Amino acid sequence: MTSPNTVRILDGNTFVVSEDTGDIEATPTEPTGLFSLDTRFLSKWVLTVNGERLNALSFDDLQYYEARFFLVPGMATHYIDAKLSIIRERAVGGSFREQLIILNHDEKPVDLEIRIDAGSDFADLFQVKDEILNKKGEIYSEVEANCLRLGYRRGNFVRETAIVSSAPARYDRDGFAFSIHLEPNEQWETRIDVETTAVGPGGRDLRLGVGTRNIERLALQHDLEKWIADAPKINSQHEALASTYRRSLVDLAALRFSPLSLGGATLPAAGLPWFMTMFGRDSILTCLQTLPFTPALSKTTLRILASLQGTRFDDFRDEDPGRILHEMRYGETAAFEEQPHSPYYGSVDATPLFLILLDEYERWTGDVALVKELEQESRAALRWIDEYADLVGTGYIWYERRNTDTGLENQCWKDSWDSISYSDGKLPPFPRATCEVQGYAYDAKTRAARLAREFWGDPAYADQLEQEAAKLKERFNRDFWVEDGEYFALALDPDGRQCDVLSSNIGHLLWSGIVSHERAEKIAQHLVGSRLFSGWGVRTLAEGEIRYNPIGYHNGTIWPFDNSFIAWGLRRYGFAEEAAIIASGILDAATYFSGRLPEAFGGYHRDLTKFPVEYPTACSPQAWSTGTPLLLLRTMLGLEPHEGHLSVDPRLPVGMGRIEVLDIPGRWGRVDAFARGRLEVHNLLD
What we know:
This protein has 686 residues and is α+β, with helices and mostly antiparallel strands. The chain is built from 18 helices and 30 strands. A hairpin with a 2-residue loop joins β7 (54-63) and β8. α5 (296-307) runs antiparallel to α7 and α12 crosses α14 (560-572). The model is unreliable at 208-215 and 678-686 (pLDDT under 50). InterPro entries: 6-hairpin_glycosidase_sf, 6hp_glycosidase-like_sf, GDE_N_bis, MGH1-like_GH. This is Glycogen debranching N-terminal domain-containing protein.
């Protein structure tokens, strides 16, 4: 994973991760470099002056798409009496551009040899993640009159990096150089454009890189300004909340990804560095979080996922008719079917979540046209739930991978290998049925019934779906309830035996509405009890379970997105105080991450650490962590669409003060919401 001293800039699927000097010197196992379309286009980019590496004084990450580095020659000492200043300004926006500025502060002229060593291993992002770089094609480097061209060719799969400088340069196979003379107080500069080209296995031009010249930088700046201007405005006495909200909007802008088939429309990529592409589950949940603030993302997400919905049985891709994809990749390993992600369908929850998002989107926007447009895809998704997902025949959604070589073993959101266990720590056999997915199925059928009755002109189908949902709720509350613990099991094994650990998944059950009301209070107590709630947030697995580990990926860490849906579920069942406790803890944690919540952080108790402990390999920014403060805002303010209007029912944590959310978009036009903290949150841990 990248070190904490790395600098990251990104624009959707294109991103650069470098040292704090701006240099890139990647190894096959480090996600540093210039990446686009799941390929590393630069793995080496090292600047020297007269053969010396440079020392960083400071850097500015000006916007998500640009950064500036201030450098001097020589090694770091207590004081550097430098006679030269070197400034590197870089930006991404489809490709990569760097402006290099050198200033002579000496009283005499200087002659300088400036060089950038450049190279690329054209590693597939999966190869970097799996720490295996086994290239089967040809890597080449070609020197042209005014250009250095780096390339990789495997059949008709081609990736190229073209490097051009505005100042005359001497190009060779390993980089390019300048010999310059500077008078006292004189400066020299050049602009270096790095353009990327990608051609797929069929010879199709996936994307001809467009250099990020100044006019494109201005376009990116204008786009960001418009993105923020179009979103609701937050005025708050709680300054950290306002800054966290803005940080989330900016990071959402950075993560917007335009799939090749959408002609510029965007949806959220999942997270940097490993997941800068389209996901089913991640994109849908992010859209649910951000719907009141950025509804356009939901429309794009629904359309692209519908267009790529499964149509056949394909064991390699775990594809079934009606199934919504898990992940889409554009790199070499997917192109040559060394990985199944072209696309891969190994997600058990994306399909019901697709239906939930479609209904929620219509409730907010009134976009009936999209509901009608996606009727057949919605019916196919519902058929998948009943006909293909019930692997055991008990009326639940189960999963078991058919691609046993490269497919995902666990296909729920807790997809690490050891995330599903019995209370004795042992792992259950397959297939598995996790509890939250049954909640999603219940919610999907309930919501789809509304769509069928109101928009598809099929009241008989609506009645059928409601009856199926009611039966699912009844048997779920029977089969998943752990009597001696008074909570719902994490999962069932194929024999119906409960994976009887206490986990954060029970909060998703509240969000879905599948929990019987007489059991909801006990679930709420568990969620803010000392075993699950650390003071910063709800742990993925309760303290005291055998596999509990405060820095275990899904076995004790705190995931901000998870907590946002838990808080939303608590509000649904009327537990406003408990929801406020969770919202307060997560928003407090955000201040320690400069407003940018990571993918996950440690589950240590708040009294032990006094600050949230970073998880060592967490993605940041990550889409559903970025969406977390927005959903928590919705939850605290009680924003819900109701009969064509926006209902506001605020319940704020103590000390939050007054919050104003202005220009909330929806079918009602744009309206404002106001709230003043009046709910006193007691410390339930005492």
